[in-house]
Amino acid sequence: MKRTFSGDEFDTNADGLVNSNSQMTDITKKSRSEPALPSRVVHLRNIEASELEVVQLGLPFGRVTNFLNLRKKAQAFLEFDATDSAKQMVDYFTSMPAMLNGRQVFAQFSNHGELRTDPTNRTNQQAHVALVQATDLYETAQKGGPNCVLRVSIINMLFPVTIDVLYQIFSKFGTVLKIITFTKNDKFQALIQSKDPIGAAQAKLLQIEYSKLHSLTVKFNNDKSRDYTNPTLPSGEGTISQQQELGM
Question: What is the DSSP string of 56-119?
Fold first, then answer.
């Protein structure tokens, strides 16, 4: 009979393998020198993140079916529905290091072929809620919809307006998914995508117009643009290319 585990029961040994109560699960133990073969489970190291952020790291590469966030160990495990998705994530993190909360996150295949967790455990139930929430936000951000993108123009700007300031202001009206800032005709402007038209409609009370765009394509997470559903995007100067695509 196969055992199931809660996130609290898991520990990691020197090999980066997951144990339960200091005992290996029935998954075959690999030697320290032998690299893990491709599997549906990705092992993340040097990560300090919330459950939502852990899931968001994997969603750009495919459907995440389960995960464990071992905060005390600064490690996490993501299970995908397909090995190809896990391989894309490992390859991406190997070629382009990802930064999250000031830390470089490392990704490798886990020696586990799957994550078996106890659905009745409170920790795992909370993790499932985070998984559903992160997946919903990511899919909504990709699809977009009418009146979900606002175009903001700031006239007579008396102090610098950053993405963080815009996020703080517009988060009061709903969930902010993406922001792109740019300068046009000597005016600082921003495109802000919210989760739904209701939040955008409330924010429109600030005399802000709707954009014709249904969704924003953000290629870089930096001081000019930000995708709050995809922390894996590289930092880079994407303003020019994004403005060209948006017809600015």
Answer: HHHGGGS-EEEEEEEGGGTEEEEEESSHHHHHHHHHHHHHS-EEETTEEEEEEE-S-S---B-T
Q: What gap in Å lies between CA 201 and CA 213, rounded to an integer? A: 15
pTM over 0.85: no
Secondary structure E strands in the chain = 10-12, 18-20, 23-24, 41-45, 64-70, 75-80, 98-100, 103-109, 149-154, 176-184, 187-194, 209-210, 225-227
Distance in angstroms (rounded) separating the CA atoms of residues 92 and 235 = 14
Q: Report CA torsion sign: 5, 6, 11, 15.
A: positive
To 5 degrees, how large is the angle CA 83–CA 84–CA 86? 65
pLDDT per position as a tens digit, 52-111: 999 999 999 999 999 999 989 999 999 999 999 999 999 999 998 888 888 999 999 998
d(CA 189, CA 94): 35
Residues of the chain by 3-state class (helix, strand, coil), percent to 5: 30, 25, 40
